[in-house]
Design goal:
Elements (H helix, E strand, L loop, with lengths): L1 H23 L6 E4 L2 H10 L5 E7 L4 H16 L3 E7 L16 E5 L1
Parallel strand pairs: 1-3, 2-3
Antiparallel strand pairs: 2-4
């Protein structure tokens, strides 16, 4: 009887560990700054296929960008299974596509 109880406890713990590994994956919890277009591409290409990645393309001194950064910082704390990133348009390597009139820009990858 004692062996059965120990075995059940062990099975339950193993199942919980497996569930946690399969269900939750990595946790992020913050808005991270990407420094270059290369880093941006690396994040998108090398992240788990099941991951959700949200990238904010911004520039300083654009009010909408500042507000969105504040919102994304808050959301990153709430949704730690989602990877939240930001990158300055001028650092993307495609700055001519991201002129101030199209900022802020939000890209979502899954």
């Amino acid at each position: 009887k004692e062996n059965e109880t120990c075995l059940r406890k062990y099975q339950k713990r193993c199942m919980q560990d497996l569930h946690q590994k399969l269900s939750f994956g990595p946790r992020y919890g913050s808005l991270s700054e990407l420094e270059s277009g290369e880093e941006f591409l690396e994040i998108i290409e090398k992240e788990r296929k099941t991951a959700t990645i949200i990238v904010h393309i911004y520039e300083d001194d654009i009010k909408g960008c500042e507000v969105l950064n504040t919102c994304l910082t808050s959301l990153a704390g709430e949704y730690s299974m989602v990877r939240f990133c930001k990158i300055k348009a001028s650092n993307t390597g495609a700055g001519d596509r991201f002129t101030p009139d199209v900022l802020p820009t939000l890209l979502v990858y899954r």
